[in-house]
C-alpha cells in the first residue's frame, strides 16, 4: 500500500522508505510541506508519515490541510519534539499516532500496519480469508499453513485485497496502491499480476472477478 513520507531530513527519509519496503509497503518521499499538501489532496495514499518541522508548511498545518480537504488516511507523526503541547497540536489537527525521535526504524512499519488494519476495520494483526492468512506484523502470507511465496508487487496487491476482503476493488484502486506515482499504471498489468496470484493460490478460488467493476477477495460460496 502506498505511504507518503514527508520528512526534510533526506537521509532519514530514505532509511524509513527502505524499512517500509522491507515491511511490504510502497513508500513515496516528499521533503517539503507545501508539496506534500498538494500530493495528499490529489494522490491516493493508504497512510502518511509526517515530520512536524518541515519547510514550506509545518507538519501540524499540513495534517490540518489534508483533513480539511477530506483526506481521511491514517497519519503517523514523526518528530524530535516530545513536548506535550506538540502532541496535542498533532492529534488536534487529525493525526492518528505519534513517534518521537530517535526510534527503531522497524517501529514505523509496525505502527503503520496497525493503523492500516484499524482503518480497514481489523482489530487483530492476522488477517484471514479461508485458507489464506496475512500476518501484518511480518508481512508474510501463508496458504493452508504453508508459506506463500510472492513477488513484491504480488504481495502489495494481495495485502491490499486482504485489507479490503469482501469488498470490490477496481483495477485503478489496485494500480494506485501498487505503482509509484511517476510510473504510468497499466490496467492490463494488474490483470497479469492477479492472474499470477491466482495461480499461486492453486485450487482455492478466492479472487473473484466482478465484471466491469474489478476484483473481490472472498471465500468461495458453496
Ligand atoms: Ca524536520
Question: Can you walk through the features of this model?
Answer:
The protein starts with a strand and ends in a 5-residue tail after the last strand. The strands form three sheets. Strands 2-1-3-4-5 form a five-stranded parallel β-sheet, sandwiched between helices. A four-stranded antiparallel β-sheet has the order 6-7-8-9, covered by helices on one side. Strands 10-12-11 form a three-stranded antiparallel β-sheet. The chain has helices spanning 10-22, 33-42, 59-68, 84-93, 105-119, 152-163, 171-178, 187-200; strands spanning 2-6, 26-30, 47-51, 75-79, 97-100, 126-129, 132-135, 140-143, 146-147, 168-169, 207-210, 214-217. It is of the alpha/beta class and 222 residues long. Helix 3 runs parallel beside helix 4 (84-93) and helix 6 (152-163) crosses helix 7 (171-178). The protein folds into two domains: 2-119, Rossmann fold; 126-217, Orthogonal Bundle (Arc Repressor Mutant, subunit A). The radius of gyration is 18 Å and the shape is elongated. Bound molecules: calcium ion.
